């Protein structure tokens, strides 16, 4: 049963769920202007190539969260201001990038959630290599398409379904 999604702070989620809470241990940098966001997970696995990221964020997905497994590479950016703006325009709540982003100052002024490991002004390739709709894993968490992600300044928590506020 899917619940209507309402943001709950991650610390409160852990208190509600208990020790089995799926908390991502990877330490991300908050880049986007929306510091708190939640939504249903869509995934991409790509390495230094952002064509799939761009394609997905150009599709409508109200309150969706794209989780991008870039293998932790900081060599090229997988998202920049134009792709983030497309995501915002198409209703996405935010993006988690296990890799780098660019145009961080511009994205910081957008009402869009973005967490990344860091920044790099270098563009990625655009061949379309990678895969989407697969389970990606980092920080001790499996990010499963259709599950729900909550993100704030304290971190990231993933649940199978939404969690109701107590």
Describe the structure.
It holds the Pfam family RraA-like. Its cofactor is a divalent metal cation. The chain has helices spanning 10-17, 51-57, 81-89, 104-107; strands at 22-23, 29-30, 37-45, 64-69, 77-79, 94-101, 113-119, 131-132, 136-138, 141-143, 148-152, 155-159. The chain has 166 residues and is of the alpha/beta class. Strand 6, helix 4 (104-107) and strand 7 form a beta-alpha-beta unit. The chain is globular and about 45 Å long. The mean pLDDT is 95.
First-residue to last-residue Cα separation: 17 Å
Rounded to the nearest angstrom, the radius of gyration is 14 Å
Shape: globular
Q: How many E strands?
A: 12
Structural class: alpha/beta
Proportion of strand residues? 25-35%
Sketch the topology as an H/E string, one letter per element. Answer: HEEEHEEHEHEEEEEE
Rounded mean pLDDT score: 95
List the helices and strands and how they pair.
Elements: H1 10-17, E1 22-23, E2 29-30, E3 37-45, H2 51-57, E4 64-69, E5 77-79, H3 81-89, E6 94-101, H4 104-107, E7 113-119, E8 131-132, E9 136-138, E10 141-143, E11 148-152, E12 155-159
Parallel strand pairs: 3-4, 4-6, 5-6, 6-7
Antiparallel strand pairs: 1-12, 2-7, 3-8, 3-11, 9-10, 11-12
Helix pairs in contact: 2-3
Cofactor: a divalent metal cation
Keywords: Lyase, Metal-binding
Pfam family, one: RraA-like
């Amino acid at each position: 049963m899917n619940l209507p999604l309402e943001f709950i702070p991650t610390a409160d989620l852990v208190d509600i769920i208990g020790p089995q809470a799926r908390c991502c241990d990877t330490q991300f940098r908050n880049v986007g202007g929306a510091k708190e966001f939640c939504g249903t997970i869509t995934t991409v696995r790509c390495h230094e190539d952002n064509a799939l990221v761009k394609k997905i964020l150009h599709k409508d997905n109200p309150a969706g969260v794209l989780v991008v497994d870039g293998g932790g590479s900081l060599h090229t950016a997988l998202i920049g201001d134009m792709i983030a703006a497309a995501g915002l325009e198409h209703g996405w709540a935010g993006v988690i990038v296990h890799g780098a982003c660019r145009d961080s100052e511009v994205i910081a002024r957008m009402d869009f959630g973005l967490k990344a490991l860091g920044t790099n002004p270098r563009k990625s390739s655009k061949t379309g290599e990678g895969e989407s709709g697969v389970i990606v894993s980092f920080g001790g968490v499996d990010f499963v398409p259709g599950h729900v992600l909550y993100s704030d300044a304290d971190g990231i928590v993933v649940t199978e379904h939404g969690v109701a506020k107590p």
